[in-house]
Amino acid sequence: MSSSAKSNIKIAPGAIVCNECELKGDISIGAKTVIHPKAKIVAESGPIIIGENNLIEEQCEILNIDPNPENSHNESVMIIGSNNIFEVGSEVNCLKIGDNNIVEAKSFLGRHSNLSNGCIIGAGCKITTEETMEENIVVYGGDCKRRKGLDKPVPQHLQIDFLCKVLPNYHHLKKSTKKPTA
Questions:
Q1: Dihedral sign, CA of 27, 31, 33, 34?
Q2: Rg from Cα positions in the chain
Q3: First and final CA of the chain: distance in angstroms?
Q4: In this structure, how many other beta carbons lie within 10 angstroms of the beta carbon of residue 128?
Q5: Three-class secondary structure of residue 158 per DSSP
Q6: For the whole prediction, is pTM greater than 0.85?
Q7: Are 25 and 44 a contacting pair, CB within 8 Å?
Q8: CB atoms closer than 10 angstroms to residue 152
Q9: Beta-ladder partners of 132
Q10: String of b and e for 97-110 (b: at least 16 CB within 10 Å)?
């Protein structure tokens, strides 16, 4: 628990991080990533590295917390790629997420499940198996059925651009900590 006592938050220029979100631990946030109010990101068992153009919505929880800390002797780095969407109320515990994934509302990703690229985890689906999903897998329905998607999900650049303009008008933002490169 001592690692959560001090936070080391790095926010890239262009990222929109609302003050009302909860950030604890060693977290790096990439450019053009939007973190809504009431989102919770906790890096207790190691750092969390979030790529560019990610959208993390309200009440989403991204947690790097080892459920068995007494068995773990080294820290685990959680890496989240670029162009991912984490919808309202989703919970993510897995250590590796690629690019262009969508984790829909109220879905759950367990600690030992990893996403490659272009995957969609449907609303309310719970993934707890120890696996790395193939590219473009869609998980859907109450039974968490799977199928191969035809295309990767489309990046939400228009929505992110809109939020980058609108959120600063209604919320206080955390300042970027990284210097822009020339």
A1: positive
A2: 16
A3: 38
A4: 14
A5: helix
A6: yes
A7: yes
A8: 17
A9: 114
A10: bbbbbbbbebbbbb
Amino acid at site 152: K
Residue with tokens 């009431």: 38
Indicate the Cα dihedral angle 142, 148, 152, 156, nearest 10°: -10
Strands 120-121 and 22-29: unpaired
- Structure-token match 């309200």, residue found: 58
Which pLDDT score is estimated for 181?
55
Coil/strand/helix, residue 48: strand
Q: What are the backbone dihedrals phi and psi of residue 60, each rounded to the nearest 5 degrees, phi first?
A: -75, 140
Minimal CA–CA distance to 97: which of 75, 76, 81, 120? 81
pLDDT of the chain along its 182 residues, tens only? 333 346 799 999 999 999 999 999 999 999 999 999 999 999 999 999 999 999 999 999 999 998 876 766 678 999 999 999 999 999 999 999 999 999 999 999 999 999 999 999 999 999 999 999 999 999 999 999 999 988 888 878 888 888 888 888 888 888 887 665 55
Tokens 């009440």 — which residue?
59
Contact of 178 with 11, CB cutoff 8 Å: yes
